[in-house]
Amino acid sequence: MYLGGHAAEEEAARAYDIAAQCVFGDASTLNYPRSGYAEFAAIFAELGKEGIVAHLRRGSRGFAAPGAAAAADAAGGLAPGEPAPGGLLGVRAAADGKWEVRVVPLGGAAPVSLGAAYPTAVAAARVHDAAALRLQGRSAFTNHPAAEYFEGAGAGAASNSNAAAGGLTGALRPLLDVLTSAGVPDASAVAAAFEEAEGARTAAAAASNAALDAALGL
Predict the structure, then answer these.
(1) Does 190 fall in a domain?
(2) Is the terminal CB of the chain with fewer CB neighbours within 10 Å at N or C?
(3) CA 26 and chain centroid, separation
(4) Is residue 86 within 8 Å of 64, Cβ to Cβ?
(5) Could you tell me which of 48, 17, 4 has the C-alpha nearest to residue 165?
(6) Which domain holds residue 21?
């Protein structure tokens, strides 16, 4: 069973643990204590083996543990480029104590950076979620319950971090609204940084597509 490539030994080991528990259950032999995965039991049960394996293959770094973003901010001392602890999706340490957000587009393309100047891991995690839902659609996995990012969806609308599995059908909420309601400091600046990075990404993608069309004579 192929589980994709992972940037660090610990990430690969945890990916194995997650898949092993889905396939072999309590009989599985794990790299880390089973108790560390207890909060993910409901996610395992709802997504099933195929959903979990698909998630791991997309190059994710596992499911974010509850409170992982706040814990990452409290930990500090990470080298630039080092993944945030706690399985936080798409968040890496940047220079000067800031955080970088990376999202993998659909189709397994290389991760897209959405800036490296977010003031907290809490803010970066929210930016990742908003970007993932825009780039990957409702099949995206998020650090926080997907229901929090959709208009008219209650907090309990999704029991896991997959919007499609949660049956969410409303429109995505504006990022500033999400950040403000989550109590993220400097929400306006964080939202503006995201919009700037997203604009640059969109422009780069359009230029790349135009160059390809020209090369193909289209």
Answers:
(1) yes
(2) C
(3) 27
(4) yes
(5) 48
(6) 9-57
Q: Are 75 and 59 in contact (CB under 8 A)?
A: no
Q: How far is residue 58's CA from residue 120's CA, in Å, rounded to a whole number?
A: 25
Question: Could you report the per-residue pLDDT of 14-56, keeping only the tens digit for each?
Answer: 888 888 887 788 888 899 888 877 766 766 665 666 667 666 6
pLDDT digits (tens, 9 = 90+) for 128-146: 888 888 877 776 778 887 7
Q: Are residues 50 and 86 in the same domain?
A: no
Residue 143 lies in a domain: yes
Same domain for 93 and 193, yes or no, is yes
- CA dist 27 → 16, 22, 37, 46, 62 (Å): 14, 10, 15, 20, 21
Quote the pTM value.
0.59
**Token pair for 145:** 């319950």
102 SS3 class: strand
> Do 52 and 89 sit in the same domain of this protein?
no
| Helix ranges restricted to H, the chain | 9-24, 41-57, 68-75, 121-135, 175-181, 187-216
**From CA 171, how far away is CA 186, in angstroms rounded?**
24
**Number of structural domains in the chain:** 2
- 102 and 148 fall within a common domain: yes
Mean pLDDT (whole number) for 168-184? 79
d(C-alpha 11, C-alpha 173), whole Å: 31
Is-contact 132 142, C-beta < 8 A?
A: yes
Buried b (16+ CB within 10 A) or exposed e, 148-175: bbbeebeeebbebbbbebbebeeebbeb
In a domain, 169, yes or no: yes
